[in-house]
Amino acid sequence: MEEAEIRRRIAVATTGGGGGYWMVGRREDFPYLQALMKASSDGDFGPPIEYALERYRKDSAQDKPNPTAKEYWPSTCAFRSILYNAGKRFGRDAAVYLDRIPDADLRLFAQIELAAPLTGLPELQGIQRG
């Protein structure tokens, strides 16, 4: 027990925390969040982009579109978070993922978020509605 406590203290002192993740959201968002965590470590942002595209199809559906402003759409928040994390991992080269975002407004939000890690700013945590 003492040895485990020493290791925990060293981990906290060297990383600023235990290195874990916490997630808040709907149950159906967990696969996306897990894919984003995995992409942040292995560099494959294709799977989280696919989740965001599926969410975008729901947000922009012709028969029942999300009535809230686009800045609050779950797909917008996903694209922004993906581009922030890709920017942390790849720098300016992460801009290639912007081409996968079909909506110009959502692409602009993601471009702004991509600039954050390039300038040392923290991720903007968006509010989702709808």
Structure in words:
The protein is an all-alpha fold and 130 residues long. It has one domain. It has 5 helices and no strands. The protein has helices at residues 2-15, 30-42, 46-59, 74-90, 104-119. Helix 2 runs parallel beside helix 4 (74-90), helix 3 (46-59) packs antiparallel against helix 4 (74-90) and helix 4 (74-90) packs parallel to helix 5. The longest helix is centred in the middle third of the chain and has 17 residues, at 74-90. The protein starts with a helix and ends in an 11-residue tail after the last helix. The model has no long low-confidence stretch (mean pLDDT 87).
Topology, please?
Elements: H1 2-15, H2 30-42, H3 46-59, H4 74-90, H5 104-119
Query: How many DSSP helices?
Result: 5
Number of strands: 0
Task: Choose one word for the global shape.
Answer: globular
| Distance linking N and C termini | 47 Å
Summarize this structure as a short list of keywords or feature phrases.
mainly alpha; 5 helices; single chain; 130 residues; 57% helix
Summarize the structure.
This protein has 130 residues and is an all-alpha fold.
